[in-house]
User: Fold this.
Amino acid sequence: MKKKLLIFIFCGFCLVAFKLQETIFFTEPINWPKANYDFSKNPLSAQKIELGRALFYEPMLSRNNTISCASCHSQYTAFTHVDHDLSHGIDDRIGTRNSPALMNLAWHKLFMWDGAINHLDVQSLAPINHPDEMDEKIESVVTKLQKSKIYPGLFKKAFGDTVITGEYTLKAISQYMLTLVSANSKYDSVMRKQSTFTAQEKNGYNLFKKNCSSCHKEPLFTNLEFENNGLALDKSLNDFGRMKVTKKNSDSLKFKVPTLRNVEFSYPYMHDGRYKRLSDVLKHYTEKIQTSPTLAKQLQKPIILSSNEKVDLIAFLLTLTDKEFIFNPKFSYPKNIFLPKPQE
Assistant:
């Protein structure tokens, strides 16, 4: 009887320890909706996350070993880039869109500006294969990783086997991206009643709730939907957004609503990076909306903001900056893996 009791207690302890380990790697912030990602099919572990982090910064994912995920998704700019409007890839090829900021991806169901990818575990395959991004095949990536000095050992720690596969490679990158949770801005602190807005920020928040919150829904600050936000078509790009995927005219000029979290750092703005400043974005919504059959219903009524109200609204948007996320060393270049250890 005592032996059975001890076994029961030990099993219970292991279960609690497993649960505690889970919360270290990923926790749903209080009052947030339930994450969409099914963790049971790709359980998080420290070893897989560390492998995924290394792969995120690994240029061997590209054809000529020059472009990594981090090339277009820099941690210090909310995991996007700021040096040009359209993303630059292999051989300095220029794409047709601005790279989206990466954060809180566990809550997303569709990925990319047009929703072409429906699961985070395969999302990385799109830039790897794209001729203007990494221009590589996953089979070649696996071969290069297998021949490297560090990756067989990292895969052994993560998956129990030195044999590297495309599935394990993509799942590891996914694990790292799942840890990119941003939920500790001043806004979050105010929601937790740990701090308060200034009068200007509070007025900006009220203006936000009145004019912006239907598409940029709290707390993710995106409704995860695809909307036509009234941008004029750039005829040099001829990008019709979601319609490219669905082939439906009703999806013409619709793009995924981006999160506004860390928007202070994630410029330039819009799917094609046409606006460099938040003031330009507000000018678009108050003065430059292009009407069309698919224009978001929320924008069919003019948005009117005074110059002072625009300043207040931007003051609120700046409270969405999460510096703990932007500068978290757990997300940065893994020097412990890539740099040689000093000789003893």
